Known about the structure:
2 copies of one chain form a homodimer. In chain A, 33% of the residues lie in helices and 28% in strands. Chain A is of the alpha+beta class. Chain A folds into 2 domains: 26-138, CATH 3.30.1330.10; 150-280, Alpha-Beta Complex (Phosphoribosyl-aminoimidazole Synthetase, Chain A, domain 2). The longest helix of chain A is centred in the middle third of the chain and has 18 residues, at 92-109.
Amino acid sequence: MQLQKLGERKITKQITKRFSIPYDDCALFEINGEYLLITTDMVYKKTHFPKEATFYQMGWYSIAINISDIASKGGEPIAYIVAFGLPRKMEIKNLEEILDGMEDCIDEYGGKLIGGDTKEANEITIVVTALGKVEKENFIPRKGARINDYIYVTGTLGKGGASLLDKNMEKLLLIKPRLKEGRKLARIGINCCMDLSDGLASSLYQLMDINQVGFKIYANKLPIDKDAKKYKNWLNLALYYGGDYELLFTTPKEIKGIKKIGKVIERKEVIIVKNGKEIKMENKGYEHFIS
Amino acid sequence: MQLQKLGERKITKQITKRFSIPYDDCALFEINGEYLLITTDMVYKKTHFPKEATFYQMGWYSIAINISDIASKGGEPIAYIVAFGLPRKMEIKNLEEILDGMEDCIDEYGGKLIGGDTKEANEITIVVTALGKVEKENFIPRKGARINDYIYVTGTLGKGGASLLDKNMEKLLLIKPRLKEGRKLARIGINCCMDLSDGLASSLYQLMDINQVGFKIYANKLPIDKDAKKYKNWLNLALYYGGDYELLFTTPKEIKGIKKIGKVIERKEVIIVKNGKEIKMENKGYEHFIS
């Protein structure tokens, strides 16, 4: 059987199961009473970036998506290691531009580039591994949602989808990970959190699986991005497109300034309420190997 | 200017200089009085492995080369994160074989696979990031060689080159990183160490650059691998081929059971003494982008 028969999430599930790895945004291990967070993301120029993307934007993006994972666990970044796969005919100035983007993103959000590896490859490949830390009591897992928790989402939804359609590379790639928000939520104490890189629907289904609960979302409460609203299918952009690097979390607490979009329910289903009607949300989003 | 005009080591030097990263086998940072070691290696099926290599061997190799880096700093592995880039038409059982190789290597040398990323790619790409630890006082840097130190090398030389020519994939890829030896050397206290993955000549030139000293090597003292000896150009295999995952180190101490191959000298040159004649060693070895 080929990998395309399974798709990215089933493959990942198989690997994590085999090695008894908790399925979360970051790996973690305890070191002197704190958690060290580790996360890695591989991006290929060919499959991850529209052709309009600049090298600077690719560099920024490859760092920022890792910071988003750390943010979703309530942590802060400490250090980055980068493995580059680069074609031999690549211009050195383009590598410099990638490094410019990385450096600016690191300057903005903290941490330090401390090492890496550079190899020859047919297509530009960037693998950033980020290390972060979080006090043990402040760590926010994916597993922890409770029935009747409110569901919240930071920022707006549909940004990723709209930017892709608009070919707005700055908005698509110069993402602003919710680091400050994650730290604040960690201190407040919330039940579960993940970042929205896979899209709202897919993320809720992943949380359903991990938490063995369901979710009811109200369409009229979703904070839709203004560029997404221009599209007739704005709801699809908000639900089924990835690339919104926002935080999705649940807590019974009232939290000001962050949009409440629904509730955790007992029945293991992901429901969207639209015009007073309850519809089952589809379990789809961007997924490697099959999308 | 294109990357191929520079070559792997000059590119790496440019990046490490820009971010003020010490050029060593592992990155490190202090955490509660210990050093956390981090190292990453990217391998491509297409460019790193002969076509005879099995998936199992690739899995083992991709973990083992990272352990070798940790061993060369006197540390021990704690955890691994793996980013996979995999073609959609790849057979699942081949991925399982890669994981078998990784698991067996981890079982042998310690640590735990704690996370990763899986993405679609045109060619099989494996990026392992390994974390290790070492007591601060036991860390062995690349920079630290002193004039008149002895130069030592563990195991034998020319194994990598001979295995490649013999198409002996087991010997080439199921490498045994010198973890125990590295830990022992760390406790004894030695001046500088690196692993020999780039080959003896290239490694000595890298150490010359970092330490601002020279090296004199005696050809008749080199521990030549028995399979390398079958080749007329055995000395070339020992000096200029990579893939010998041994430890190269310097210390003024007498160390039993490990082969002494030369001496650190003041003049910044890498010399090989053969049949009583001193010859300058060439600065070459396997290098991405130009080899």
